[in-house]
Amino acid sequence: MPKTSLNALDEIYQYFMHRSGPLSGLHLVNFIGYINTKNDSIFPDLQVFHTQMDSNDLYVVEAMTRSINLPDELIKTYLEDNKHNSNVFITSQVMKPKSKGKILLRSTDPFDKPRIFPNYFSDEKNEDLELLLEGIKLSKKLVQTEILTRYKAKVVKFTLPNCKDYDFDTDEFWRCAIRNIGSHLFHQVGTCKMGPEGDPTAVVDPRLRVHGLKGVRVIDGSIMPTITSGNTNAPIIMIGEKGAELIKEDWLGNVRDEL
Ligand SMILES: Cc1cc2nc3c(=O)[nH]c(=O)nc-3n(C[C@H](O)[C@H](O)[C@H](O)COP(=O)(O)OP(=O)(O)OC[C@H]3O[C@@H](n4cnc5c(N)ncnc54)[C@H](O)[C@@H]3O)c2cc1C
């Protein structure tokens, strides 16, 4: 029977009674890999998510593929394949993107929505795109490992409306696929960059005070001069903690001065 939101109750029961089942893990990101594709440093340049879906798990497959806005044609292929097979959905992420976006004011009205230009894959040497292609090649190697050949693993063949000119599984096909269905992980940062006063692109100083204004600080992900490697939530919590310390230090310093 296909999984639906209704028999999610079974999963809740399984978790509360036996502490097992899909709800006992992180599910979508149960295991994450960090790889240096060039093997030239201890620092990874690629993060890889592996999302495992049981056979006939139509509810999760559909919810996940729709949440990342995949084209209907591709979702249909996944749903069809998942009726008969368990799937592992592998996605690679560039740890230090070379492409940079920009955010501009739409007007002088502060309540107007800003204009956001992500500019993905706009770096001159195409390094971001080529790194993701490398990620796909590495992921495909998993299929040839002894353990997965035992389970007769294979790459699910699919087509995309904008990539029909390319044969499936060629580099050109994957480049087209990355450009068409590549997405992001909501890790936008750096719109109020921290930097020295002379830097025209810097908004806040190293104590997170806005240059040229008194009594205004910015303490969030926007102050990152460059993005951290991997997910942003933990480093931004750290920025929050550090910002609170800076405020305390300055305030206590001021109070002492006044005494
Ligand atoms: C769907 C989603 C999934 C994510 N998953 C992960 C994950 O799995 N792991 C991970 O590490 N990161 C994840 N992230 C990224 C992470 O959550 C963010 O990078 C982080 O929360 C950003 O923190 P922040 O404090 O910079 O900004 P925010 O959390 O966006 O906080 C900004 C705050 O400022 C407030 N604000 C905005 N304008 C004004 C104004 N004019 N005046 C006063 N207040 C204002 C907003 O209401 C908001 O509360 C995810 C993000 C999203 C959206």
TrEMBL record:
This is Glucose-methanol-choline oxidoreductase C-terminal domain-containing protein. Pfam families: GMC_oxred_C (PF05199). Residues 97-240 form the Glucose-methanol-choline oxidoreductase C-terminal domain. InterPro entries: FAD/NAD-bd_sf (IPR036188), GMC_OxRdtase (IPR012132), GMC_OxRtase_C (IPR007867). SUPFAM superfamilies: FAD-linked reductases, C-terminal domain (SSF54373), FAD/NAD(P)-binding domain (SSF51905). Belongs to the GMC oxidoreductase family. Signal peptide: none annotated. It comes from Ignelater luminosus (Cucubano). One of its GO terms (molecular function) is oxidoreductase activity, acting on CH-OH group of donors.
